């Protein structure tokens, strides 16, 4: 059984069909990339999985459970973490606090216990902190631990957002354009991290990315979208060679 | 410059980062405890007023500074806390029970109010809460059988284990009572900030979309913020009632709500210090102004000339100046001055300049 399974999902905004009868599945342990021109519906697919949008029709299931039964804030509990295309960090908090919010799904204490800061809350804080420190070590974020997000450069924010998603110990990681706006070196780092996330941590990765170098470097399978519908699916090489994909990107007609 | 050499996670979790700051706050508390022996009754009363405002400020800070939900309705919750505490005491409930109950009642009402309020953002929430503040006046009049409406109520004498506490006859005991409540509220606030719920508050404030994606239930978190904020405000309201001695439907007007919001903005949004700094300004400024106008009036030979709207005008000017030149409030300025001394002579002029925030995913909402 696939980890994530999307069947015949359709989403319309008024007359615009953002996602059109789309079906695909992501297997446990693989890196699955979604590519496509701007406006193809890539981020919309993510927002469907995150339950920010309700599909018009179709089904989405994660590890056999129906995702459509859940509210957006209950998706994280299943072990689905995500990043955003336009970086959605908590700007007026430190890197550490941002990463600790990633641990929110593991919160075990209630409000009264936290107001009194009982020994249990303290113990839990140590556990959360340890998990966050593993992420900080993994992503080399040590110099920024106590820095405010509002003062950090774009590239670092991108990494912090990845870290926040990782801090929640997800089973499925959704990366929305992890390399957009990054320099060549930073993109290279991102590539190694995605590799390690899959190999060392055993986390399944679903990503949207424009950088074909990164996509062909890390992903096992690629889905090409255009106008909300599936254009091609297969290994990076297969998709890149697909005539329909080339047509969607470059256009057709005599040169 | 002090350098924190952290050797365990506990360094970041415990209340005081190092021994020095522990001593500073211990000295502050010790100084606050012996204050009645140092000040005469008038100034002790003023300091008590500052502390009561600081508690109310902590309440609103939790909601506005921490969770990002502006409220112009907190005067209504002050009133609710005040009336419920004193009505309970009139029915024979001892203060030690009536006072926390007043907080709980106000907190429950705050949570109920959150049910419609969580759907509102920004300015719309401010308008809705302001309506609450204006309504409170009428509701108190309508509930005259309990609240004595326009004629108002007198605060009874507080008795704790046979010890009588009254604002005028025993101002020192009343001051200590307020001090204890202040310290407990501050501790609770501090505890919240280092726990998951406090971080969830900040997450809701900065990005509801990604807070949701991280598993934070937005409506529940906002309701918790409203509840806790109103509970603290209710406690402050009860103390305000005892401090004023007598109160009626006009005591907790919308002006109080606006002053409260101004207070936390001037003090510095999102910090405990800000509530205290703001309270000092709000509580002392009227006194300072009347003293100043007396002096100037005396110099000009015109005695007891009250300039209409002077207080409001000065408050407004201060608020505008802060928003223009120091959006982080007095606490922000304090941090800058402290950093300058700590790093001397290496502080740079643009150290606190913030990069502008990048485009947010607004289209999801």
TrEMBL record, chain A:
The keyword ATP-binding applies. InterPro entries: AAA+_ATPase (IPR003593), ABC_AA/LPS_Transport (IPR051120), ABC_transporter-like_ATP-bd (IPR003439), BCA_ABC_TP_C (IPR032823), P-loop_NTPase (IPR027417). The keyword ATP-binding applies. The lineage of its organism: Bacteria, Pseudomonadati, Pseudomonadota, Alphaproteobacteria, Rhodobacterales. GO terms for cellular component: plasma membrane. SUPFAM superfamilies: P-loop containing nucleoside triphosphate hydrolases. It comes from the Bacteria. One of its GO terms (molecular function) is ATP hydrolysis activity. Residues 4-252 form the ABC transporter domain. This is ABC transporter ATP-binding protein. Coiled coil: none annotated. Keywords: ATP-binding, Nucleotide-binding, Transport. It comes from Antarcticimicrobium sediminis.
TrEMBL record, chain B:
The keyword Lipoprotein does not apply. GO terms for cellular component: plasma membrane. CDD domains: TM_PBP1_LivM_like. Keywords: Cell membrane, Membrane, Transmembrane, Transmembrane helix. GO terms for molecular function: branched-chain amino acid transmembrane transporter activity. InterPro entries: ABC_transp_permease, LivM-like. The chain crosses the membrane at residues 20-38, 44-63, 70-89, 95-115, 122-146, 174-192, 223-245, 251-269, 276-293, 305-325. It is found in: Cell membrane. It is a multi-pass membrane protein. This is Branched-chain amino acid ABC transporter permease.
């Amino acid at each position: 059984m696939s980890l994530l399974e999307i069947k015949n999902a359709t989403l319309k905004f008024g007359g615009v069909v953002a996602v059109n009868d789309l079906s695909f599945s992501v297997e446990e342990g693989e890196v699955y990339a979604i590519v496509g021109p701007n406006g193809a519906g890539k981020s919309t697919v993510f927002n469907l999985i995150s339950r920010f949008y309700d599909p018009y029709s179709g089904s989405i299931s994660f590890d056999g459970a129906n995702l459509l039964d859940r509210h957006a804030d209950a998706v994280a509990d299943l072990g689905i973490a995500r990043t955003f295309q336009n970086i959605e960090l908590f700007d007026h908090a430190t890197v550490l606090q941002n990463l600790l919010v990633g641990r929110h799904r593991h919160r075990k204490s209630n409000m009264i216990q936290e107001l009194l800061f009982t020994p249990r809350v303290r113990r839990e804080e140590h556990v959360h902190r340890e998990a966050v420190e593993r992420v900080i070590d993994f992503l080399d974020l040590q110099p920024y631990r106590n820095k405010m997000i509002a003062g950090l450069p774009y590239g670092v924010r991108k990494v912090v957002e990845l870290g926040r998603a990782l801090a929640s110990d997800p089973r499925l990681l959704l990366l929305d354009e992890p390399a957009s706006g990054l320099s060549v070196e930073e993109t290279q780092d991102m590539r190694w991290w995605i590799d390690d996330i899959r190999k060392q941590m055993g986390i399944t990765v679903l990503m949207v990315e424009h950088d074909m170098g990164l996509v062909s470097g890390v992903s096992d399978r690629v889905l090409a979208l255009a106008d909300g519908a599936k254009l091609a699916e297969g290994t990076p090489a297969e998709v890149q060679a697909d005539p329909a994909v080339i047509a969607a990107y470059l256009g057709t007609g005599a040169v | 410059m002090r350098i924190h050499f952290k050797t365990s996670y506990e360094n970041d979790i415990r209340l005081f980062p190092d021994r020095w700051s522990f001593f500073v706050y211990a000295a502050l508390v010790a100084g606050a405890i012996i204050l009645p022996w140092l000040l005469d009754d008038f100034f002790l009363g003023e300091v008590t007023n500052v502390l009561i405002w600081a508690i109310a400020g902590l309440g609103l800070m939790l909601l506005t500074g921490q969770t990002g939900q502006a409220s112009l309705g907190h005067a209504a919750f002050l009133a609710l806390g005040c009336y419920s505490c004193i009505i309970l005491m009139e029915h024979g409930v001892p203060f030690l029970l009536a006072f926390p109950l007043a907080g709980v009642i106000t907190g429950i009402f705050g949570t109920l109010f959150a049910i419609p309020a969580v759907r509102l953002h920004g300015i719309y929430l401010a308008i809705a809460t302001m309506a609450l503040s204006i309504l409170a006046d009428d509701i108190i009049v309508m509930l005259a059988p309990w609240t004595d409406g326009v004629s108002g109520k007198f605060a009874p004498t507080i008795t704790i284990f046979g010890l009588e506490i009254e604002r005028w006859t025993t101002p020192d005991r009343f001051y200590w009572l307020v001090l204890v409540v202040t310290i407990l509220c501050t501790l609770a606030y501090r505890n919240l900030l280092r726990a998951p719920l406090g971080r969830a508050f900040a997450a809701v404030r900065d990005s509801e979309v990604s807070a949701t994606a991280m598993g934070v239930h937005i409506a529940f978190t906002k309701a918790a913020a409203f509840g806790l904020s109103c509970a603290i405000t209710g406690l402050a309201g009860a103390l305000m009632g005892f401090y004023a001695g007598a109160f009626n439907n006009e005591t907790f007007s919308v002006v109080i709500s606006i002053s409260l919001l101004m207070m936390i903005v001037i003090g510095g949004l999102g910090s405990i210090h800000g509530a205290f700094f703001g309270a000092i300004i709000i509580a002392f400024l009227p006194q300072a102004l009347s003293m100043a106008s007396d002096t100037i009036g005396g110099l000009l030979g015109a005695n007891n000339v009250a300039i209409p709207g002077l207080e409001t005008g000065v408050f407004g000017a201060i608020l505008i100046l802060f928003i223009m030149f120091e959006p982080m409030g007095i606490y922000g300025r304090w941090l800058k001055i402290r950093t300058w001394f700590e790093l001397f002579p290496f502080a740079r002029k643009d150290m606190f300049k913030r990069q502008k925030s990048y485009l947010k995913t607004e289209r999801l909402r």
